[in-house]
Amino acid sequence: MTSISSPLIAPSILAADFARLGEEVAAIEKAGADWIHLDVMDGHFVPNISFGPAIIKALRPHSKLPFDVHLMIEPVDPYLEAFASAGADHITVHAEAGPHLHRSLQAIRALGIKAGVSLCPATPPEALSEVLDMTDLILVMSVNPGFGGQKFLHSQTRKIKTLRDMIQSSGRSIRLAVDGGIDPETAPLAIAAGADVLIAGSAVYGREDYAAAIRALRNSN
Ligand code: DX5
Ligand code: ZN
Questions:
Q1: Does the reported pTM lie above 0.90?
Q2: Measured on CA atoms in the order 75, 80, 83, 85, is the torsion positive or negative?
Q3: Which residue of 107, 140, 176, 206 has the lowest C-beta tally within 10 Å?
């Protein structure tokens, strides 16, 4: 019941060649990706800076795949509209990034796109119990956000299981993504726990053959 046969694969362009981002996005679509994951970092909520809406807007014509925008920024509300008009199909905010998660999710849905919430490793799954009806996507961080190439935190599989149960008993259709340290060895653990979206930077863009890398993740369970 909780085992998902074919998870969606969402490569993170954080590990792509930033000098050739348009081609890198097109290449990953051709290689069989389901979503493009875009990590936005502000040097404040997380200790790293990546890119903002202007880059996302420039990338939009290079792929038809859903743009899954992961905002690691604080505050978040003043920027939601800019990311939506840049071409985001999903916007995921962090539960830790402000006191008004419910308002942020409402604002995202009001922009006509899917609303996601991410939890850092230290945040319990119960943080989402009052907003499940506002949520289309839950993103469990299996590393501390801010950098690619970190080691998968095994402690997070229990959280994925609890969230899968919460989703199941809510009767809602909510995607459950895992992000951080996902490779063909760790992906089966996340899938067994109930994840149905695998976000991976290094395990796709860090490989020579993107199609083979995506296949290896998709068939890893
Ligand atoms: C980390 C980002 C991740 C990151 C994943 O803060 O949210 O999406 O790019 O990179 P890997 O797969 O290399 O751990
Ligand atoms: Zn991410």
A1: yes
A2: negative
A3: 206
Q: 116 CB less than 6 Å from ligand 1?
A: no
The domain 8-218 is classified under which CATH number: 3.40.50.1820, 1.10.340.30, 3.50.50.60, 3.20.20.70?
A: 3.20.20.70
Phi, psi for 32 (deg, rounded to 5): 105, 15
Q: Which residues are annotated binding-site positions for a divalent metal cation?
A: 37, 39, 70, 179
DSSP string spanning 32-50? T-S-EEEEEEBSSSSS-B-
Q: Where are the domains of the chain?
A: 8-218
Distance from C-alpha of 196 to C-alpha of 192, rounded to nearest angstrom: 10
Under DSSP, the state recorded for 78 is G
Q: Are 137 and 115 in contact (CB under 8 A)?
A: yes
> Are the C-beta atoms of residues 141 and 148 closer than 8 Å to each other?
no
